[in-house]
Specification:
Blueprint (H helix, E strand, L loop, with lengths): L1 E5 L4 H16 L3 E7 L14 E4 L10 H24 L3 E4 L6 H9 L3 E6 L6 H6 L5 E4 L15 E3 L13 H8 L6 E6 L6 H14 L5 E6 L5 H9 L4 E5 L5 H7 L2 E4 L3 H10 L3 E3 L8 H12 L2 E3 L7 H11 L3 H10 L8 H11 L2
Parallel strand pairs: 1-2, 1-4, 2-3, 4-5, 5-6, 6-7, 8-9, 8-11, 9-10, 11-12, 12-13
Helix pairs in contact: 1-13, 2-3, 5-8, 6-11
Length: 359
């Protein structure tokens, strides 16, 4: 079976798409992955051989030069999508959201090729909201998304959010040894997602710097490319035990050793937290239709995470939170146990089943 998978340029789009692509390929299906060209600049590792790149689409709704360029690249993207459809002749096209996916899914619909889209967030994005009217099936990560889509309930299926196969819990000692960390120290993981988050990076670093002599902790900080240099210099001036990365692929080590995570609330991050049951302070990204706020609310409602709005993020607030969670085993244990209230889904296999059942 020939399956064409198209996705956007963020890690939140790419990693679920890669998980599905690997699963289908391992079952001896022909899979073509299509990515926007700007993925190459983001240094997200794409270890999938059958990959093609198309023009990235960035459209705004204001009348200016950027809008004209955006329309031009959208037309280029759509033309490339048509050529890929004709060349690969897929039996099913799978879209993982973003404007980059519209062209391929639209042509597939027009040529009566079976189509399915996957929505990672609680609140559906613009591209998937538009495509949901055209496609044969809509797979969602959260049951709450059903209420956000104005389509037939029979078309929607709950699969969860596919994760990479290598994301499995490791023995704590193995993870500690990987980072050369010590047992018995409180371990904090900080990450802003695949491309980092400057405000989160700066506030966390300052809060940790203040507490470096008061709290016996160790830090894993995944900061993105833009903040790596100044944070490297900053951490060198502290006495903190730390590991700093601009991008970190082997997240199973970080999740297996973290006592607490401070992070954004992207859909893939939420799925990974659920799998590893890590107590979290979530600071949702405030823009992009507040997708992350709705994602964060899912973990807050069950008691697995605390939500701190970006507007309220400050050094003092983080200091208070770190002091409260530091070695508070009862609170951390309760947050870990709260994850049991969410359904356990094999999202990759469930989504693969839905894709194959369309043929």
């Amino acid at each position: 079976m020939r399956v064409l998978i198209v996705t956007g340029s963020s890690g939140g789009h790419i990693f679920p798409a890669l998980a599905l692509a690997d699963s289908l390929k391992n079952s001896n299906h022909q899979v073509q992955l299509v990515l926007p060209e700007d993925v190459r600049k983001n240094r997200i590792p794409i270890d999938f051989t059958q990959t093609e790149y198309i023009h990235a689409v960035k459209l705004s709704f204001s009348l200016n030069k950027k809008t004209l360029f955006g329309v031009y690249f959208f037309l280029c993207n759509t033309w490339q999508a048509l050529r890929i459809i004709i060349k690969f002749k897929p039996l099913v096209v799978v879209g993982f959201g973003s404007l980059d996916s519209i062209g391929l899914v639209f042509w597939a619909w027009l040529f009566r090729i079976k189509t399915i889209i996957h929505e990672q967030n609680v609140v559906c994005g613009r591209a998937n909201r538009f495509l949901s009217k055209l496609v044969d099936r809509v797979a969602v990560s959260f049951s709450q998304t059903r209420n956000d889509l104005n389509v037939s309930g029979e078309k929607i299926v709950l699969t969860g959010n596919p994760l990479r196969r290598d994301l499995v819990r490791l023995e704590r000692k193995e993870a500690l040894d990987f980072f050369k960390f010590k047992e018995g120290k409180f371990t904090v993981l900080i990450t802003g997602g695949s491309q980092g988050a400057h405000r989160l990076n700066a506030t966390c670093f300052e809060a940790l710097s203040i507490y470096q002599k008061k709290l016996d902790l160790q830090v894993i900080h995944i900061c993105g490319m833009q903040d790596f240099t100044w944070l490297s210099d900053g951490y060198l001036c502290t006495t903190l035990t730390y590991k700093l990365f601009d991008f970190f692929r082997q997240m199973q080590y970080a999740y297996s050793v973290a006592d607490l995570i401070i992070c954004r609330a992207g859909a893939t991050t939420i799925a990974e937290l659920q799998k590893f049951r890590v107590p979290a302070i979530l600071v949702p990204y405030p823009f992009a239709y507040a997708h992350q706020s709705a994602n964060a609310q899912v973990l807050k409602n069950i008691g697995a995470a605390e939500v701190l709005l970006d507007a309220d993020l400050s050094v003092d607030k983080l200091k208070e939170r770190l002091q409260e969670y530091f070695c508070n085993n009862e609170k951390l244990k309760a947050m870990q146990m709260a994850y049991q209230k969410l359904p356990v889904l094999d999202a990759t296999e469930m989504l693969a089943y839905e894709v194959l059942s369309l043929n």
